[in-house]
Amino acid sequence: MKEPTRVADRHRFDTLVDARSPAEFAIDHIPGAINCPVLDDDERRIVGTLYKQQGAFEARRVGGGMVAANLARHLKDHFSDKPASWKPLVYCWRGGLRSGSMTTWLRMVGWDAHQLAGGYKSWRRHVIDTLETLAPRLQLVVVCGATGSAKTRVLHALAAQGEQTLDLEGAARHKGSLLGDLPDAPQPSQTGFETALAAMLEGVDPARPLYIEGESRKIGRLTVPVPLVDRMRASPCIEIHATLEARLAYLLRDYAYLGDRPEWLADRLGMLTALHGKETIAAWQAMAHAGDLAPLFEQLAVRHYDPAYSRSQRVHFREWAQRQVTETADLSPAGIDELARRIATTQKSADL
Length: 352
Prior knowledge:
Layout: E1 15-18, H1 22-27, E2 34-35, H2 41-54, H3 56-77, E3 88-91, H4 97-109, E4 114-115, H5 119-134, E5 139-145, H6 151-160, E6 164-166, H7 168-172, H8 190-202, E7 209-213, E8 218-219, E9 222-223, H9 226-233, E10 237-242, H10 244-254, H11 262-269, H12 273-276, H13 278-290, H14 293-316, E11 324-328, H15 333-351
Parallel strand pairs: 1-2, 1-3, 3-4, 5-7, 5-10, 6-7, 10-11
Antiparallel strand pairs: 8-9
């Protein structure tokens, strides 16, 4: 009897085929998979309703016709150019009828198709296990700094210089603050976020430093996995200490698009009313409506973000008292590149 195909075997295949509905695929999927639904979203709903109201036979009778039509379409549209040697791995939610039917059809054609044992649920278990296993082994170096210190751009510069980095905000598609929503880039699902992190961690060399931005437990509406948060909190920190002038100049470049979103910006500022009072928020909202980002960002930095930053770092990072501090008055692209080189040099010296 042939051994079942597991998640660890996925790299042996030419193509990962997700046979679930588009809605399921959009929530999360194995990285690199293509979506070839055996039932689309409406068909899946219809079959599910039939199962509940009329039983399994009627659901399979009607669903079988839908499955046959969809499989024929995929053979024509997606698989027609595949050579006889093509070897796909097919999965659905639990490794049941949907992926089983597609695998059977593909094997009948002559391809060496396999079905993923346990389906997407086995992938989800793999993601959780990966985060729990790898996170405690990481040699994290936490890059901290007040709002506007260009921490994410420093991570990008470190990566370009050959260092290992983990960009949590990039994976979360969010800048990690009240104003962190990205235009036209909605955040992924929680499971999709965790899949992205697990995929990144699988490529990390645990013997080398891994630079990560100091984050709270939440990035927008997403939660950073607990094993990663715990490791971050216990890891050494490097603090970027940039001048206020440099930070404000960087913020005006990095958040320039907020000038085109005055209503959204004013609405978000309203969420700070309980902290700063109606009068202050009204003044800030007037700046937002007028497009006066420079004075608004200075007010937010000095009166909101900086005091919160000072409190949170001491509480959240156990190695904060022993942090390395890197000073800068230049957060231009060239200044950020130089800052990244200095941070990497400081870390290498600390490791000696």
